[in-house]
Each structure stands twice: as structure tokens, then as C-alpha cells.
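U., I forgot to send this yesterday:
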Amino acid sequence: MPKVSIIVPVYNAASVLERCIDSILCQTLADFELLLIDDGSEDSSPLICDDYANRDARVKVVHKRNAGVSMARNTALDLACGDYLQFVDADDWIAPDCTQNMVGAIEESGCDMVIADFYRVVNEWAAVKGSISGQGPLTREEYGDLLLENPADYYFGALWNKLFRRSVVEEFSLRMDPQLSWCEDFIFNMEYVLHASTVFPLHAPGYYYVKTEGSLVSQGMNVADVVRMKLNVVEYYRDFYRRLYDERDYRARRLGVYRFLVEFSHDDAAIPFVSESKRLSLDEDVPASEGLGRADSFFGLCRQRVLFDRALEEVAGEFELDVRDVELLLYLRNAGERRSVQEAAELLGLSPIAIAASLQKLVARRFVPIGSAESLSDVASNLQLPLREQMMTLLDVSLTPQADALLRKVDRVCGQFEAMRSSRLDADEREVFERLERKVSEAVGEVLGR
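Result:
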């Protein structure tokens, strides 16, 4: 039985396939089987695979109808005989000591998985990439904490910089999800980690990753299907942490878990003429390069806030109110029975004094009935108390028919605001957008304790 099963899915990779296979057959550890899974290629890839199989008994080839990379990998997993599993993509290649270093690490440490630094390749330039700086084995909980810091990093998400124990994969029947075209490898990794006791970070890069361009949309998927699929991945990511930690530890890490809702997969490029990047050479070490930055939603949120305030200003002016008065009315209508000064202050960005002043104006304009004066008196009198006690005051306030008329206009304005935000989406995309909005709102509410 071979020590390692090296799995390479192949689809129309003729221009780079020989480089990949040659790098594997030149490994210093020779005790392996190479499984080339031809996923219905339409170029000369099948002939190349067969030629190598005829020349080297370690090479096994399967030709199958095109069904996607997940099915190709699953086919290889069903055939694999090695003690360990290593994955290589057909457009990448590995250094001569790559497999030996990973096998040595897993056997010396006794860990269930090795995760290694790798080379990020752009044209003739490469940079070392890695996200774990510490030495020595990690528990799966420690590994999960490090994943939380950078959940969309290829270092954690990819299969190809890791070595797995086949016994774990078979014991728990782990396979790729063929329904996914995004993050299917990430989900496999997370499921594996749930069954691993320890993980060993290897700081000896040996994998050369060539990032290829192309989005899910360019692969024939519409935007709505892409977002639905990504929402399913987000659900699994959250479930992974609920299974990894006990309830107390999970709640303490919720904010980090929800970061995945707003991050997307990124990998900083190696850039020519930047000092940290070096021209690619297999004969020299390549120093690591630091990240160049990531996307930020700050300005998008600010612009949405400006647009929403402008929409409310029109209604507020018509009724001789300020925007904050209209927002307080919206809060009073929508917040339920346990409305409090604390919640209103946090959501609207107002102090207890400002809330009391706005309530008095709403009574004077007959949007809040005079009968609510008792609650208003509570708010006003409690202004003399410490801030913490002020915030606990309940807002037991009802609304008048005049307020209902104002809020119906606000609802129309809000509808126009939503229409503007989604004006470039079709019906399916709008449905998915609304679903995503609800999930983000639920996540934020859970983090804030509401």
C-alpha cells in the first residue's frame, strides 16, 4: 500500500498538466500513487494522462463524464489506498520535497492534519503565504480561533496546502459536496477538523499556487444562484463553530463568526517590483509578503445612511419634525412591548435627554396622546438618576391616528429607498438580496443581544 495518495482533478489543462505531473513524479518521497481524474476534458489532457500512466506504474487514470471538481475528487477518494491524502490542482505544481516534508511533519507530530505555507505565483513572481506564525501542534479549538481571524484566506480554505489522514476521511465518510461550486474545499476542511484532535502548521512552503481568474458568474451561474449557494456556505460556517465550541465559548466568539458574513475570499497578489516579491526560481527561497489591504464596507454604509436620511427629511419637514423625531416614531411602532430608553438610545444614537425632548415634541404635535404623559414624566424625572438607571426606563407610549398617517408616508418612502438600492437586480436577485439582508440583520441583532 502506498504511503500517500496524491489526487489531481484534470479538466482541459493540457497547457500546464505536464508541469504539474512532472513535479509530482520528481518527489523525494517516492512511495505514492498519483490519481489523475479526467473530468471529461475536451483538449489533449486525456492523452497526456494516459501517456504518463503507461510510463509510470504509480500513475492511475480515470476518464469520466464532466461533473465538476467535487465529483472528480470524490471519485479519487473512493479509489485512494494511501495512508495520507494530498491534493494538487492541475495548473499548479509542487517542490521536490513537498510531500516528504508534509509526511515527515504528520508522522513526527502525530497530528491528524498538516497545514503548510505555500507560494503564491503571478507570472514570473512568487511570494510565500501563510497565516499561522506559531510553532508546534494546535488543538482543533486553537485552530478554529486562528481561522476566525482570517476566515476567507486561501491558506485555511484550500485543500492543496494540507495533508490528511485517509483513516479519518473514511471513518467519518467525508466527501466534497457536489452541489457547491464555491468553498466546497473549505467545507471539507472544516468537517475534517471537527474530527481531528490536533493540527500541525508547517512553515516549509512547497506548493506553487497559480491563481486563475474567473468568477462563478463567468462559469454560467446567475447571481441569484451564486448568492443562494454562498448563504448555504455561511450557514455551514456558523454551524461549524457551534459544533466546535461549547455554548459559552461560541457566544464569546459570535462577532468573529459573523465576520464571515461580510468577508469574501481574498488572496494578496505577488506584485512585480514590490520589495517583498521575488522573481520565481525553484532554487532560491522566496520571502513572505504582507497583505496589501482588503475591501471595506464603511463608505457603502455611510452612503446608504445619507440616502435614507434624505428620504426621511422630506416627510419630517412636511410634518414640522426632525429626522430623529420620525426615527423615534418608527422605533415606537416597531420595537414591541419592551421598548426602553436604552434600546432607543443605542439604535438611534440619541441621549436620554434627546429622547425626552423628542417625546415632548411628539406629544405637542399630537403624534403621541396626552395619556402617555405618565411615561413621559418617568423619562423626564429619571434624567436626574445615574445614566445606567436612566437607560432602564421603559417607553410605555402609544401612537395617535395622526402618527399612523405619517408612518404610512414613511413606509412609502422606505419602499422607494429599497427600490433604489435594488434597482439593478432582477426578481430572483432581489429575493436573494432580501434574504441576505435578513440574515445580516439577525446576525447583528444576535451580536448586540437582541
